[in-house]
Amino acid sequence: MRVVQTLSKDQTATVVADACLHCGEPLVPRQQDFCCSGCALVHDLIERRGWQEYYRLRALNQGLPNQNKDNPAPSFGYLNTQSYYEKHCRRRENGYQGTWYLEGLHCAACVWLIEKLVQNCSGVINSELYFGTGKLVLWFRPDTDLEGLANVIAAAGYQVGLVPQVSGEEGRDLLRLGVSGALAGNIMLMSLPFYTGLEDGGFALLFAWTAFVLSLPLLAYGAKPFFKRAGLALRTRCLNLDVPIVIGLLSAFGLSTYSLVQGRIGDLYFDSMGMLVFFLLTGRYIQNMGVKRALRETQRLLAAMPQMVLCREGETWIEKPVEYLKAGDRLRFRAGDLVPVDGVLDSAGGVFNLHVVSGEAEPVTLTRGEQVLAGSVNLAGLVEIILENDAENSRFAHFQEKSQKLSHKKHQDPIAEAAARWFLPAALTVALLGFVLWYPSAPTRAFSVALTVLIVVCPCALALAEPTARAWGLSRAAQAGIWIKRPEVFARMDQVDEVIFDKTGVITEGLPKLIETRWYMGRAHWYKAAICALEQAGHHPMAQMFLAAWQTPATPAPTLASVGEVQALPGVGVRGTIDGCDLVVCSLAAVPQFCRDVADLDAVDRLAAVLDAGHSAVAVLNNGRLAGTFTLEDAVGGEVAEAMACLARLGLQRTMLSGDRQAVVDKLTDLLGMEQGLGARQPEEKLAYVAEGDARVCLMVGDGLNDMGALAAADIGVTHALGTGAALEFADVVLRRRDLTAIDQLFDLAARVKRATRRGLTLSLGYNLVAVSLSLAGLIGPLIAAVLMPLSSLSVIAVSAWTLRQRSR
Amino acid sequence: MGILWMLVPLALALSGIAVVAYVWAWRNRQFDDMETPAYRVLFEDGAATRRGPRANGEAVRGKEETP
Known about the structure:
The complex is a heterodimer.
Chain A lengths: L36 H12 L4 H9 L20 H7 E4 L2 E9 L4 H12 L4 E7 L4 E6 L5 H10 L3 E3 L11 H23 L6 H21 L1 H12 L6 H21 L7 H33 L5 E6 L2 E6 L8 E4 L9 E3 L3 E5 L1 H4 L5 E4 L3 E2 L4 E2 L4 E5 L7 H14 L5 H25 L4 H14 L3 H20 L2 E3 L4 H5 L4 E4 L6 E12 L4 H14 L5 H8 L12 E7 L3 E6 L2 E7 L3 H4 L3 H12 L5 E8 L2 E12 L3 H10 L3 E5 L4 H11 L3 E3 L4 H9 L6 E4 L6 H6 L2 E5 L4 H6 L2 E3 L5 H36 L5 H24 L4
Parallel strand pairs in A: 16-23, 16-25, 23-24, 25-26, 26-27
Antiparallel strand pairs in A: 1-2, 2-4, 2-5, 3-4, 6-7, 6-8, 8-14, 9-12, 9-14, 10-11, 10-13, 15-27, 17-22, 18-19, 19-20, 20-21, 21-22
Chain B lengths: L3 H24 L8 H5 L6 H4 L17
C-alpha cells in the first residue's frame, strides 16, 4: 500500500499504516507494530526516556517520501529484456555493466546485506555499492536473472530504480585541481626568493627557469578548460569570463618568458599565473560540487523502473517494455496502474485520475471508444486499451520532445555575460592607454606597462567572486531542502516579475481532505473501520483520504468479523458486504440509486444545497439507509497563504495556471488573493502562456506531466520531490518538500548571493582600479603586484562568506 | 649555498612523486566513494580485503572510460 507521510509540524511521528513504528519498513502479515525485535527494543528505549522528539525530528529532516510514483508495486521484468541491456548498460567482457539506484540505505548493515544478496546471485561477475550515492554497479553475464535479484533487494526493503539516461560526466576536475595545486605551489616556492630580494646571479636564474618549466604543464593541462571555453565563446562570437582570463594568463606567461629570455629577472609573473589557475579551478570545483549534489538528488527521485505493460499476443498476455508497443496492440491495466501511452478504451467503462495529465483533481469516467491519455491512472477494475499509434508517436512523446528542445536553449548566465562584455573592452582600453602614454618617453617600457596592466586587471578576483558566492548559496539551499540544478538561477531570481503556480499538487494537495463528517446511525467507530476496509479492497481513490483521516496509531481500528466480496462501481463508488451489512460508499448524486427512504433523501438534498463550490460530498449507505455523509475539500496546504503573502510583499504578480475548471481556480485565487487565475488550460496552452513575452521573467512552480513544457519554457522552473518524473527532469530547482515557503527562502537566498557577488565585484574592481592607476604611473613594482593578487582573491572569498553568513533583514 | 643546486631538483622530484601518487589514486577510483569503505571495515567476513577497488577487477580509469 502507499505510505502516507505527513510532515506537518504538530505531527509527532510519521503516520504510516502497516509499517514498523521505529524504522518505517513495511510490515509483513503477522507482524505487529515492529519489523524486528531490534526495532521494538530501540523504540521502547526511546519511549521510556521520553525522547519522542526523535521521531518528530526524523520526520521533519528526512521527510523524503519513500514512494513518490503513481505505480505502487514496481515490476522488475524489464531487467531481463534486451531493451535493458541496450538502453541502460555498457558492454564489458563476458557481459554487461549496469547501474541501479537504491533508496533506503541507512548504515553499514545495509551495505553488508546488499553485497551479500548480490554475491549470492549467480551470473553477477562483480558488483560495487556506493553508499553515499546509493549506486549499485553490477557487472553481469547476459543470462543473469536480474529480475530475481531486484525482487530480493526490494523484498529486503530497498527501492530499486534506474536513472533515465546514463550521465557520462565524471570528475576529471578533481585530478586537474590536485595536479594544478601541486604545480602552483611549487611555482610559488620558486618565486619566494624574489619576494625576499633576490635579484641576480645563478640562483635567480635557477629559480626563474624552474618556475618557467613548471608553468608549462600548468598552462597546457591545468588551464585547458579555460582555453577550451574561451575558444568556444570566440567561435560563437560571444564573450564569457573565460576570454579575459585567457588573455590575462597568456599575457602573464608571454611577458614573463620574454623577460626571462632577455635576462631581466624582475618581471616574472609565473606565480600569479599559477595562483590564478589554482584559485579559479578551486572556485569552479566547489560550485560544481553543489550542482552535482542537486543533480544527484534529482536523479535519485527520478530513479524508477521502466513500466512493463501487459500486452495481448495471440491468445496470451505477455509483459512488454513500453517502447516496443506498436499501433493496434491491446493492453491491459489493473486498478492503480499508470497508462503510459495514448489509446482508446475498449472496456465497458473506466475511471481515471488525470491529475498528472491535465491537473484535474476529480476522477473522470470514460466509456468505450473514448480516448485515454498517457499519464492517466486507472482507478477501478481491469481495463483494456487499444493503442492508436506506436508508443514513440504519442502526443505525450511529441510534447516531451518539444520540452526537451526548450530546456536546452535556456539562457546564458547574465552576470558573467555582462561582466565579460564590459570588462574585456575596459581592460584592453586601459592597457592601450598605458602603451600610448608611455610610448613617447620610453618605447621599450611602454610594452611592459601595457602587459602589466593586463595582468594586474587579471580577472582573478572578478571570476572568483561569483562562483564563491554561488557555492555558498547552493550549499545553504541544499541544507534548507532546495536542490538547485543550475547555479545561474541565482542571477535570474531578482529579475523575476511573475510567479506562476500549478494548482493541483502545488497549491492544493491533490488528495481531497475530509472536512466534515455526519453520522446518522451511530456506531461511528465500526463504520470508520468498515469504510476503510471497503475502500482499500475496491482500490477506490478516496481510500487514502479515509485512511489518513481515521487510521492513526492512537486509535486502533476495531477488528471486523468478515469482509465479503467488494465490488467497484466505476464512476459511482464501492459496494461490499462487511459483517453481514450491505454497505455502499458513493457520491451524493448517486444516493437515489441505492436509497428509497424519503427522510434520507431529504437529508442528502439539504446537504447538497449548502455545499460550497470546490467541495464535494460522499455518502455511506447501510442496507439502503443513509448512515453517514462526508464533505471533502481538495485542501490548500497550510503554508500556502504565508508563502503567497511573502511573494506579494516582494511585489510579484502571482498567477494560477491550471488544467482544472475555471470555477475552482477562481475560488482559490480569491481565497489566496492571487492576481490572476487561468483555468482549463491544456499542457500546450500552459507552455504558450509561460513562453510568451520576451521581456517577462517568470518562475513556474508545477509538478505534473502537464507542467513539463511550462517548466522547460520558464526562466526558472521549480518542482517538488513528489512531482512526476518529467517535472523533475525539466525543473531547474527541486524542493525536497511540498512547502511553498521554500520559494520565499529561495528568493531571500538569491538576494543574498547577489549581494555577496556585488560586494566581491566592487571590492575587486576597486582594487583593480587602484592597482591599475599605480602601475600606469609606473609606481607599482611587479613584486607588489604579485603579492597583492592572491591577497585580493582571498579577500573576495572572505567578503562573500561574511555577507552570506549575515542574517537576512 | 651550492647545496641548492641539488636541493631544488630533489624537492621537485619529491613533489613529482606526490603528484604521481595522487594521479595513481585518482585513476584507481580512490576518491569516488569516500563513505562505503569506512563501513566495509566493520564486516567480519573479510569482505573488506576482497572488495577494494583494485581487487574486484574494476577497470582502472582510462581516457574516456566512465562508470
